[in-house]
Design goal:
The complex is a heterodimer of chains A (about 325) and B (about 675).
Chain A (H helix, E strand, L loop, with lengths): L2 H17 L7 E13 L5 E14 L3 E5 L6 H9 L6 E6 L2 E2 L9 E4 L11 H11 L4 H14 L15 H12 L6 E5 L7 H16 L3 E6 L2 H7 L2 E6 L2 E7 H5 L16 H11 L13 H15 L11
Parallel strand pairs in A: 3-8, 3-9, 6-7, 7-8
Antiparallel strand pairs in A: 1-2, 1-4, 4-5, 9-10
Chain B lengths: L2 H7 L4 H35 L1 H20 L3 H17 L2 H20 L6 H34 L2 H6 L5 H35 L16 E2 L17 E6 L9 E9 L11 E6 L5 E8 L6 E7 L6 E8 L6 E4 L2 E5 L20 E4 L11 E6 L12 E6 L2 E4 L10 E8 L9 E3 L2 E4 L6 E6 L1 E6 L10 E4 H5 L5 E7 L4 E5 L4 E5 L4 H27 L4 H16 L1 H8 L8 H10 L11 H21 L11 H6 L5 H27 L6
Antiparallel strand pairs in B: 1-2, 2-3, 3-5, 4-5, 6-7, 8-22, 9-11, 10-21, 11-20, 12-17, 12-22, 13-21, 14-16, 14-20, 15-18, 18-19
Helix pairs in contact in B: 2-3, 2-16, 4-8, 5-6, 5-8, 6-8, 6-10, 6-11, 8-10, 8-16, 10-11, 10-16, 12-14
Classes of the chains: A alpha/beta (about 325), B alpha+beta (about 675).
Bound molecules: adenosine-5'-triphosphate and magnesium ion.
The site of magnesium ion has 4 residues of chain A, from α2.
């Protein structure tokens, strides 16, 4: 990146600090009592998509929004981007109100479906979005080539997106989200439509972004993805926040111990059982570990539909 | 478009118009913005509560200046480029040009009629066709773009970039205007070639050879030419040309005796010249009669009966006359008292005011028309030694006089001193035969015989005075027109009598008239894009088209509001047309007709209020000037451009606010 650009970025973050005294540069995203009610044409209330959401995303972390279909994940992301206006509460990004355009300088967004112009080629697409960041021609060109290479579409870069498969469009969608080398990346179901290899690459990319010190907010209902890459997660159910915390601590069940070993013959299993039984323990299972997040998720959903309202604060941050 | 509006626009002066326009536009903008803020607050307060609503409005208003001042040309151009690509993809542009090409191809078949003014038909056809096609293309591309972007959600990936709402709106307008400009340029070039090629022609003389020898003698008893029309007084031979482009001309060899110091204006057609004993000169000249709105120049080579005659290109087409209009026109009746609008001759639809020639019993009528000119200076005329006065006079005859004879009029000029006590210079009266339904050219020599008044107002003896140094010493000049035939009337309006300067190149005038279409296109595209920020595509198309039609008919709609309007409003007129009811009869009273009238009143009322918001398109419409062969003044061009840009800015701001306050992902 040219020095001049680094400079403007520093300047703009300095300006932010001056304009907002509460601004903590370590908090990238902040939702304060954020609510959204969708109204119909006549102003009648239709759906309460998000109810009083409070959360903070810190600089450098990968944050996951989890929840079943229609739980308000996309709504939250759209509120953070200013695509929707909150019914009440505030959405702050880099300490600025979500409706400010200037915050977009440092944001990358991958929508739930890639809403791109189908009559443009991959190169033209990236060039167009590069122009929207006011990038000079040379920078645009380099950056576009680099990203097309990165998402593995060099072989199809001169083809119009209308000819692309779903996964290919998804990849170019990711490339456009990264065109400005953003500080904050918002990914709405990043792995949807990707093949296993693509999913793997996407996850690697997210981890790579984290290593570069970027902040990632992603939402998904693919628990394995979330579990693999996220530092912290929030679980939404029908617009309500049900869980919020570090993935490892959320998944730690304190009265259970899981033992994993290898290179032990089958014959030794009986011995191990005997040892546990000798200590009064009770073997729950003895197999390869499961995606336990799935269990947590399902139990939350089950519990919430039985007893609406906030869950007890069982998870420590 | 209303005739009177067109008429008024002729005299537009940028310097006079501008302060008035700012006076209207400024407060209007302010009022609109204020209304927008109040309305915005009400909506926001209703949606989000009073406090939050205030916050939202304050934020929107506060964001206005950064959003406009920090616009990035690169981003605007990126949006514009995308808009261009998108419009091409929709094939609207191709279809528009295809329709135009078809019209030109097949239109040519119907054009070559032997009408009085084929040039007007040609130019009207291309100018009107181009205007309509370009404007409808503008409406289509502008209306679909944003609504489709929102529907396909492609806008999500755009507005989440550092793009300002102002850039999205302005970029689109710029992009569509760029396409329109390219299309208009192409259509303009094709149109010009079509008109030029369609009207350029020449003829040959019918007969054995192309010389005087082929001319025919005139039958002295009838004095009619080959087409059965009377020949002019000095004619000694006549001829006829071949039929080309659907018409033929007749022509004459005329004998013309002139003073030595006033040779004919056009010397190219002189066949022979003979000095008479009294010092006068007898010219023999070949003149081609007017047909289909034009004549032809003549080239003579050799002399005597063997002189070969070649007809040149058409004269009278492709003109861009530059008129100097008077600042004011006043009529006086026979008593000499001033009379607004001239004598009433019962021709209400005519804009002209009339003045009479008295009666045989009251010959010394004081009835006259006075035109006051200013800025009459030497440098404004092509040839200051021979200034051309041009008149399109109306004639109203009464049966008390000879109906066949041409009506006599006279002109006279007077100085208009700043200080009334200073002596005036008044010229003699010069009589002329009025040429009805034709433009009359009156060459005025620089030295004109007249009389000066002394301090007490008495006339000094006649002498020659200079047009510029004496009559128009301070640039001001009064021209007085009188009717010299008893029982007859002459009529004139301000636009009918003017001095002429050198013509402007026709191609330049053609270009300027297309700039007028361009300005209309800019307004329509801005309007369409603004509407499309809050309406869906079909509604945007309808609303833009309605606003455009209202803009085209501003005067007409306002006229319908006037109490003495005949035939009722649109619904009533439609009813009358369907039932073939006369426009002037009262409808049968009853619930039906009352309902019709009431709903008409409402409709007209609504349309009329729209006329104050929609641009008055007559400001941009230059095609009449082009068609009638008048130069489009830079003043009018300036007014049109400033107006168009004002609307562009106004509609962009409207679009900006509506996009900014809109929830994109709703
Ligand atoms: N434009 C809209 N108008 C009305 N209701 C909407 C709109 N968009 C979303 N909703 C409603 O809001 C709720 C939350 O939707 P949202 O898209 O945020 O869910 P999500 O968590 O992203 O679901 P998914 O996993 O299916 O993407 C749903 O009940 C949905 O029906
Ligand atoms: Mg979603």
């Amino acid at each position: 990146m040219p020095a001049a650009e680094v400079n403007t970025k520093e300047q703009s973050s300095k300006k932010l600090q001056q304009s907002n005294p509460d601004y903590d540069p370590n908090i990238v995203v902040e939702a304060q009592n954020l609510s959204k009610i969708y109204h119909d044409f006549w102003g009648r209330q239709k759906v309460r998509a998000l109810k009083a959401l409070d959360l903070e995303v810190r600089k450098g972390e990968v944050f996951g929004l989890l929840g079943p279909n229609g739980s308000g994940k996309s709504t939250t992301i759209k509120l953070l981007l200013g695509l929707l206006f909150p019914t009440s509460g505030r959405a702050l990004v880099f300490g600025k109100d979500a409706s400010e355009v200037t915050k977009n300088e440092k944001i990358g967004y991958l929508p739930e479906e890639s809403y791109l112009y189908r009559f443009l080629t991959a190169e033209e697409t990236l060039d167009f979005y590069g122009r929207l960041f006011d990038m000079p021609a040379k920078v645009r060109k380099e950056r576009a080539a680099e990203l097309i290479e990165k998402v593995g579409l060099t072989w199809a870069k001169r083809r119009q997106l209308r000819e692309y498969s779903k996964g290919m469009v998804r990849r170019i969608g990711l490339a456009q989200a990264l065109i400005n080398d953003p500080e904050l990346i918002l990914l709405d179901e990043p792995t949807s439509g990707l093949d296993p290899l693509g999913t793997r690459e996407m996850k690697d990319m997210i981890i790579e972004l984290k290593e570069q010190g970027k902040t990632v907010v992603m939402c998904s209902h693919l628990l394995a993805d979330v579990q693999d890459v996220c530092d912290r997660i929030a679980i939404l159910y029908q617009g309500e926040l049900k869980e919020l915390g570090r993935v490892d601590s959320l998944l730690k069940v304190s009265d259970e111990t899981q033992v994993r070993f290898d290179n032990v013959p089958e014959s030794a299993h009986a011995e191990i059982r005997a040892v546990i039984e000798k200590h009064g323990g009770n073997i729950i299972s003895m197999e390869n570990p499961k995606t336990t997040l799935e269990e947590l998720f399902l139990s939350i959903v089950r519990e919430s539909s039985e007893r609406p309202g906030h869950r007890s604060d069982r998870a420590a941050n | 478009m209303s005739d009177s509006q067109f008429y008024e626009n002729q005299f537009l002066k940028l310097s006079e118009w501008f302060p008035g326009a700012v006076g209207v536009f400024g407060p209007l903008m302010l009022a609109l913005i204020l209304m927008g803020v109040v309305f915005g607050y009400l909506v926001a307060a209703f949606r989000h509560g009073a406090g939050e609503g205030f916050y939202i409005v304050a934020q929107t208003v506060g964001g206005f200046f950064p959003d406009w001042l920090r616009m990035s040309p690169r981003r605007v151009w990126a949006i514009a480029r995308l808009a261009i690509k998108e419009a091409f993809r929709r094939r609207v542009v191709m279809v528009t040009f295809g329709l135009f090409a078809l019209a030109i191809l097949f239109g040519g078949w119907f054009m070559n009629s032997n009408s009085d003014h084929p040039d007007r038909i040609y130019v009207n056809f291309v100018a009107f066709g181009t205007q309509m096609l370009v404007l409808f293309m503008g409406i289509l591309v502008a209306s679909f773009s944003l609504p489709d972007d929102i529907k396909n959600k492609t806008i999500y990936t755009v507005v989440t970039k550092p793009v300002r709402a102002s850039e999205i709106v302005v970029g689109r307008i710029v992009g569509f205007t760029a396409i329109g400009t390219a299309l208009l340029t192409l259509m303009g070039i094709v149109s010009f070639v079509f008109v030029w090629g369609g009207l350029t022609h020449t003829h040959q003389i019918v007969g054995e050879n192309q010389s005087i020898a082929s001319f025919e003698d005139i039958d002295p008893t009838t004095r009619l030419n080959q087409l059965g029309r009377r020949v002019s007084n000095g004619a000694i031979k006549t001829f006829q040309t071949t039929m080309d482009d659907g018409h033929r001309h007749t022509g004459e060899l005329i004998e013309d005796i002139r003073d030595a110091d006033s040779p004919p204006m056009d010397a190219s057609n002189v066949v022979s010249k003979e000095v008479l004993p009294n010092g006068q000169i007898k010219y023999r000249r070949v003149i081609v009669d007017l047909a289909a709105g034009h004549t032809h120049g003549v080239k003579v080579s050799g002399d005597g009966d063997n002189a070969t005659i070649t007809l040149g290109p058409a004269r009278g087409f492709f003109r861009a006359r530059v008129p100097y209009y008077s600042d004011s026109l006043a009529f006086f009746e026979y008593t000499g008292a001033r009379k607004e609008g001239g004598v009433d001759v019962g021709r209400e639809l005519n804009r002209q005011g009339f003045f009479d020639g008295g009666t045989p019993w009251l010959p010394n009528t004081l009835s006259r028309a006075e035109f006051d000119f200013s800025g009459i200076v030497e440098s404004r005329f092509e040839d200051p030694n021979l200034v051309v006065l041009e008149m399109n006079l109306g004639v109203f005859r009464t049966t008390k006089a000879n109906i066949q004879k041409r009506v006599l009029g006279s002109w006279q000029i007077e100085s208009v001193p700043e200080n009334p006590e200073e002596g005036r210079v008044v010229s003699e009266r010069f009589t002329f035969e009025s040429q009805e339904y034709q433009t009359q050219l009156m060459p005025i020599k620089r030295k004109i015989v007249g009389q000066k008044t002394d301090e007490s107002g008495n006339f000094e003896p006649s002498a020659e005075f200079d047009l510029f140094d004496d009559y128009a010493k301070n640039g001001k000049l009064k021209l007085v027109l009188r009717c010299e035939d008893p029982n007859q009337y002459l009529g004139a309006a301000r636009a009918d009598v003017y001095f002429r300067s050198a013509d402007q190149p026709y191609a330049w005038n053609f270009f300027k008239s297309y700039l007028g279409i361009w300005a209309q296109m800019l307004v329509i595209i801005s309007l369409g894009v603004a509407f499309s920020t809050f309406l869906n595509a079909p509604v945007t198309i309808v609303m833009t088209a309605v606003t455009m039609l209202v803009g085209f008919n501003t005067e007409f709609i306002r006229e319908m509001l006037s109490p003495d309007h005949v035939g009722g409003g649109p619904l009533e007129s439609f009813y009358r047309i369907v039932t073939q009811n006369s426009m002037v009869l009262e409808l049968d009273p009853g619930i039906g007709s009352t309902l019709l009238e009431k709903s008409d009143q409402l409709l007209v009322q609504m349309l009329a209020s729209l006329t104050y918001i929609a641009p008055n398109f007559s400001i941009f419409n230059f095609s009449e000037s082009l068609i009638y062969g008048y130069d489009i003044s830079l003043d009018r061009l300036g007014v049109a451009f400033i107006t168009a840009f004002a609307f562009f800015i106004g509609f962009s701001i409207l679009g900006y606010f509506s996009l900014k306050t809109r929830e994109i992902a709703k």
